[in-house]
Amino acid sequence: MAVPKRKHSNSRTGKRRSHDHVKRRQVSYCPQCSDAVPTHTVCPKCGYYQGRTVVEQADD
Known about the structure:
The chain is built from one helix and four strands. The protein is an alpha+beta fold. Helix content is 13%, strand content 17%.
């Protein structure tokens, strides 16, 4: 089994991990209700997506 002979420095470890960060979700606004919605998802508030109502919302 291959075992490292020397410890990797903190700098070298940080360079490797520099691409592992999590990016923020892109948010757009629903044209129907103006609620913030992640892109390419049905609006949870009104059920609107791609110019039509996809999910019917029950009135509470």
